[in-house]
């Protein structure tokens, strides 16, 4: 047990490890967000990009980069005309001297107010999707690691080309109801820009689209994925040794520091595969305060079903952000990485064998409450040094989460990707790995959304008459049955 100023020892079950990007903007309370939606561009064509001192920015609402000069160094002046007053009172085309978001002499912060609002909504969608995906994947899996961000990114890129009921189902499953289609992608663009500047940790995210040669991809789909998701486009290399999956796997490996090397198995890409949309993510961060290797020792780990195994248990006594949940009957400890922006959170049941009860009570509300109630406490933390890997198809999980039409050859609608072919998602493949040590954490993941062409000669329905049956001979013109019988293989 833990007291407000005492210590507790984690020696039983490491329940749930959440490697979280603790973006200040994403974790702000809803009250801090601007009331009302900001009018965005009329369609994705009004999105523009500019480089400002090495940091990429997004222009929305039809504003060009130059159009934002009106604010000068002052706070405001959002439109080029300069007729609006700056919030600090200094207005006009040239801007004032006040502090703020204008271009002027000062450098702009990572997000504008509208982008912060959108990314806040996106973080809510990500959290909702993460918990639902976790709840679905944990079934019959004693150990699990996956990247909600990677899966969500790849599917949102795919959603760019979804239409009608297919799009609506993806919106619900991805938690994007509070973000209209354009806003969801603008939010991801802003988030991608922010994640490209991770501070003292290594964080690489990359997107790619591989397609069938000569597939007539809609230009808007291609342009928006390039501009908003920095996606690279390439074609299947059917001449590649060991199959067209090899170049894709090679790209994924290069993006994940060779942590994910075989995302697509040989035979994944067939003549009826139109496209594979891929996201890759790699993270490496050192703890803000490292564990001393001399403190690591072999200890007993009590598995969920009662058996025990030896593990290398790390130990550190220090001030950690800690919370105790009466509702979940669980401890929560935050382990920050060096820059303070990213943290790992460990949720540990109070008693052995209670992980299922904690998972049953874990939802978006309880998770947010846990994070808001973290306070500095003296903690004696025992945490296993471990490595965990997972690889699975997400097709069934996503269908169970409400995405049935996107996987249907007859109901899927992805005309935003290609209008001359009927497309559907044939599979979503995910692979992830994490390694936790005294130094810190290294994790990588990749997601491949495999999009197929609807077959004009579908797989045959097997009818195997290896048991008794009825048969008859009929004249179709006169509709007269000439013979009728039943067959039972009588010797």
Automatic annotation (TrEMBL):
<dbReference type="InterPro" id="IPR042185">
    <property type="entry name" value="Serpin_sf_2"/>
</dbReference>
<dbReference type="Pfam" id="PF00079">
    <property type="entry name" value="Serpin"/>
</dbReference>
<dbReference type="InterPro" id="IPR023795">
    <property type="entry name" value="Serpin_CS"/>
</dbReference>
<feature type="signal peptide">
    <location>
        <begin position="1"/>
        <end position="26"/>
    </location>
</feature>
<comment type="similarity">
    <text>Belongs to the serpin family.</text>
</comment>
<protein>
    <recommendedName>
        <fullName>Serpin domain-containing protein</fullName>
    </recommendedName>
</protein>
<dbReference type="InterPro" id="IPR023796">
    <property type="entry name" value="Serpin_dom"/>
</dbReference>
<dbReference type="InterPro" id="IPR042178">
    <property type="entry name" value="Serpin_sf_1"/>
</dbReference>
<dbReference type="InterPro" id="IPR000215">
    <property type="entry name" value="Serpin_fam"/>
</dbReference>
<keyword id="KW-0646">Protease inhibitor</keyword>
<feature type="region of interest" description="Disordered">
    <location>
        <begin position="56"/>
        <end position="115"/>
    </location>
</feature>
<keyword id="KW-0722">Serine protease inhibitor</keyword>
<feature type="compositionally biased region" description="Basic residues">
    <location>
        <begin position="94"/>
        <end position="106"/>
    </location>
</feature>
<dbReference type="GO" id="GO:0004867">
    <property type="term" value="F:serine-type endopeptidase inhibitor activity"/>
</dbReference>
<keyword id="KW-0732">Signal</keyword>
<dbReference type="GO" id="GO:0005615">
    <property type="term" value="C:extracellular space"/>
</dbReference>
<keyword id="KW-0964">Secreted</keyword>
<feature type="domain" description="Serpin">
    <location>
        <begin position="131"/>
        <end position="490"/>
    </location>
</feature>
<keyword id="KW-0325">Glycoprotein</keyword>
<dbReference type="InterPro" id="IPR036186">
    <property type="entry name" value="Serpin_sf"/>
</dbReference>
